[in-house]
Design brief:
- By secondary structure, this protein is mainly beta.
- It has one domain (about 1-85).
- Helices cover about 5% and strands about 40% of the residues.
- It is built from one helix and six strands; from the N terminus they run ββββββα.
- It has a six-stranded antiparallel sheet, with no helix packed on it.
- Strand 4 and strand 5 form a beta hairpin.
- The longest helix has 6 residues, at about 80-85.
- The protein is globular and about 30 Å long.
- It starts with a strand and ends in a 6-residue tail after the last helix.
Length: about 90
């Protein structure tokens, strides 16, 4: 699975994982943080399904690649998706 904060421009955050989010967590994810962002961050997959992802507060180097993370997520309801200013793929 691939989640990005934007699909029609250069992303500031990309998350890779072998499986979809389950039980409120993206498990064993690889996080590519290309710009420091406030948490939570709204991301979407290629089909436009959106999640609110809570970033770890203690990323040691800020911008960079972080493997093997378990990231807490919340599935956004339809109203939040419609009112979001993030672009849908």
């Amino acid at each position: 699975m691939i989640w990005r904060d934007v699909w029609n421009d250069t992303p500031r955050l990309v998350i890779l994982s072998e499986i979809d989010a389950q039980d409120g967590v993206i498990s064993d994810a690889v996080l590519f943080l290309l710009e420091l962002l406030p948490s939570p961050v709204i991301v979407s997959d290629a089909d436009g399904h959106r999640l609110s992802v809570t970033l770890p507060p203690d990323l040691p180097e800020g911008v960079g690649k972080y493997p093997n993370l378990d990231l807490p997520v919340e599935t956004l309801n339809e109203e939040k998706q419609i009112n979001s200013d993030h672009s849908v793929p």
